[in-house]
Amino acid sequence: MTAPVGPFAQSALHVAGPQAAHIERLWWLMFGVSAAVYALVMAALLIAILRRRRAAVEPEPRPDPAREQGLGRVVWAATGLTALTLLLLIAILRRRRAAVEPEPRPDPAREQGLGRVVWAATGLTALTLFLLIAASYLTDKGLDALAHDEEVSIEVTGQQWWWKVRYHGAPESRGFDTANEIHIPVGATVKLTLKSTDVIHSLWVPALHGKQDLIPGQDNVLYLRADRPGIYRGQCAEFCGFQHAKMALKVVAESREDFARWREAQLAPAPQPADAVQARGMAVFLSGPCVMCHRIAGTDAGGVTGPDLTHVASRRTLAAGEIPNNRGHLAAWIADPQGIKPGNHMPASNLDPADVRALVAYLESLR
Amino acid sequence: MHARPLILCGLIALAAAGCRREEREHSARPIGEQGPGKVVLSELFPGGSPPPGGSHRRYEENAYHMNEGKRLYSWFNCVGCHAHGGGGIGPPLMDERWIYGGQPENIYASIVEGRPNGMPSFRGKIPDQQVWQLVAYVRSLSGQAPKDAAPSRDDHLSAKPSEQQTPAQPPRNSALPTASERRE
After folding, report:
1. Which of A120, A146, A339, B96 sits at 20 to 30 Å (Cα–Cα) from B65?
2. Would you say B103 and B142 are in contact if contact means Cβ atoms under 8 Å apart?
């Protein structure tokens, strides 16, 4: 498997698909425009300060503090007086007195120059905003430009706090369930149908696409394509409760051959236990509390409340991207799920330590 | 003026008391160290009630424990027989009548030992801490838990007021309901 792994596995600036590329271009345009506006405003501010300082440099001697205090009082009085004067003026104007002789106007040439500057700035602002609107519109069109000729159709259901993933097959008996890890073939259009069963979530895999909400009672559809193989991290981008921050997923983009191999492996029922320890683990699973929520295809376990565990050992992470999938973490998760991800919907169980070891051995065999 | 330090101390004490309500104890003891809890099998004790056993009121004084109890109450299907306190196949839990006693230790025993006519035993099935969380929640159904820690609202529409709003109904031990009472 090639890059990106490491710090750029979840970045909108290290893209792997055509739609993410559109979004990246818009991002850079907005960044450039914002940077230019910032620079312009700072320059204008600097010029204003420098000019004022030049004007003020010449005459004034330093005032003493007592005088300053006195001046403060004067300023307050002046403010009050100004307010009073304004009120008076309004009163006078409302009485429609005859117009007084206009005051001598300031230098008309300078006035005209300043007017031009104001007009130019206003025009530039409007133009910039229009440019951004146009760019945003074009990006939206670009996101939708992907032909709807999907090779793979996947249903993603957001749940507190993990992702249920169902691959549709033709016929439907060639479909299967998995969780928190989506495999897609490189270069193929993938259709994601987004659902939710509890609250609103949002799927965001920045290297492939923008955000799209998963809303209870409404199916949203997302088409995407990965052009580079790699493992891209995504996460929930809409606050959805206690463990929102720990609701991540991985998208594995791989060659068509690898994908087909993975798909066949996922379609197979769970392997039978190979030794006595694994057999005990299976017995614990089927007679203990696990079976109430989890499913293992090929056994009597058929719960759909929690993630499908038919091929749990083939996944890279546990608990929606929270911990790596290995023996130690798996055992820790079974022994104390609330300590690792407080508030999650898996209650602690009352298993004997030897049973936990057997259970872990069995689950590890589910490749 | 002398009242001010007193008020301040009072506020600090209140704040400190409030912390215990919010404390989140995710797991009581490591797996493997959770032996079966002590269960009181008789209501006869020297020196009158309450029955012996450690004080487990701390579960009732803690919002997290009680909230966990509320989740477990539906996850473990207590709802199936006792509904949301109103009862059905099993006796109601929101009134003052307790066939097997309404003290925390009594309810703990009912859950762990099971009771005749349908209440299954949960001994060895769920950790001790979860039983106590359930006990705290069950007691809040009849308004016996402190109001500042009891759940204040449901995530879903509910036909009855929240546990926090339930008026306190002190337990009154009673015999099994007679046939005519059951028909009421």
Report:
1. B96
2. no
Nearest chain A residue to B129, by CA: A348
All domains in chain B, ordered by first residue: 56-153+161-184 (1.10.760.10)
CB contact under 8 A, B127 and A350: yes
Is A190:A256 a contact under the CB 8 Å cutoff?
no
What interface predicted TM-score (ipTM) does this complex get?
0.74
- Distance CA(A308)–CA(A367), nearest Å, equals 13
* In a shared domain, residues A248 and A285: no
Question: Between chains, do A347 and B75 touch, taking CB under 8 Å as contact?
Answer: yes
Judge residue A366's burial from the number of C-beta atoms within 10 Å of its C-beta, 0-12 exposed, 13-18 middle, 19 or more buried. buried
CA of B156: which chain A residue's CA is closest? Answer: A198
What residue in A sits closest to B128 (Cα-Cα)?
A350
Which of A336, A338, A350 is the closest to B124 by Cβ? A350
Asked if A347 has any chain B CB less than 8 Å from its own CB, the reply is yes
Distance from CA of A144 to the nearest CA of B (A): 37
Indicate if A196 and A246 belong to the same structural domain: yes
CB-nearest to B31 from A342, A347, A356 is: A356
- Residues A281-294: pLDDT tens digits? 999 999 989 999 99
Query: CA of B155 to nearest chain A CA: how many angstroms apart?
Result: 11
Cα–Cα distance, A35 to A163 (Å, whole number): 38
Instruction: Tell me the pTM.
Output: 0.79
Q: Would A146 be classed as within a structural domain? A: no
**How many angstroms separate the CA atoms of B98 and B91, rounded?**
9
Q: Are residues A156 and A243 in the same domain?
A: yes
DSSP for B109-154, please give it. HHHHH-BTTTB---TTTS-HHHHHHHHHHHHHHTT-S-TTTS----
Q: Are A251 and A9 in contact (CB under 8 A)?
A: no
The answer to whether residue A332 neighbours chain B at the CB level (below 8 Å) is no
Instruction: Express each pLDDT in B34-66 by its tens digit.
Output: 555 566 566 565 555 555 555 577 888 889 999
Q: Do B31 and A335 touch (CB under 8 A)?
A: yes
Query: Would A321 be classed as within a structural domain?
Result: yes
Contacts of A353 in chain B (CB under 8 A): 31-32
| Length of chain B measured in residues | 184
Half-sphere exposure of A38 (CA within 13 A, CB side): 6
Average pLDDT over residues A175-204: 95
DSSP character at residue B49? S
Paired tokens of B34: 């959770």
Residue A335 forms contact with B (CB below 8 Å): yes
| Cα B39 to chain centroid, rounded | 16
